[in-house]
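Lecture 7 notes: from sequence to structure.
We start with the chain below.
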Amino acid sequence: MTVHRRVLDRERESDLERSPSIVKSGPRLNGILNAVVPQADGIGYIQELNRLWEQVRDKFLAMGEYLELAKATLPHGHYEMMFADARRNQPSPYGSTRLNFNSATGCKLRAIYRATRDGKIPRDKLPNAWGTAYELTKLSDNEIKVASSRGLIRQDVYRSEILSLVRELRAPVGPGRREALSAERQELLRDVHRIRKRLAEIEGEIGTDEVLGTMIEGHLHPAGQG
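Predicted structure tokens for the same chain:
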């Protein structure tokens, strides 16, 4: 008899609603969460695959957040001992228990989580492949702006697209590099304009500083000098 998704979902919900002291990660729970059930049509397969695809991103973000919490709360040195590449010749507070990945992977997962937490990369546009997502976290703020303007901040972006952008923008000479520098210059000029305007307002109220002097055409002129 064919197992229906509705029956499986009820079984999954029943297990997940039980006390954490009873439900633990293990073959049974993992089997329920990842069970593959034949679907009636293509729509069913699309829905199931999309559900799993979304979970990929949610899971590596959750891992990054867990790692960030562990780094912030564990006693000094204990965080580093969690990883698969921790030195085996040193006593570990966790005995022989280790994570199934190394510290370099841990750093990347934390960087992805921080990028979404701090708003650098919108969560709903984060690539579903964590390796690609990490490449986005390495971009500067101005490079992120260029990537966004070219439609590269999206879930299905390829890692090769990001690496190609990096090579272009960081090349000694080229239109991409010029574009990035031009964007940065415009941003700096806006800051200069804002600062000049505010300095003029302050000097209008209290006069010029006897030590610092006044700002004229973007240059500092000490007090007493023409």
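Points to note: The mean pLDDT is 80. Residues 42-73 form the longest helix (32 residues).
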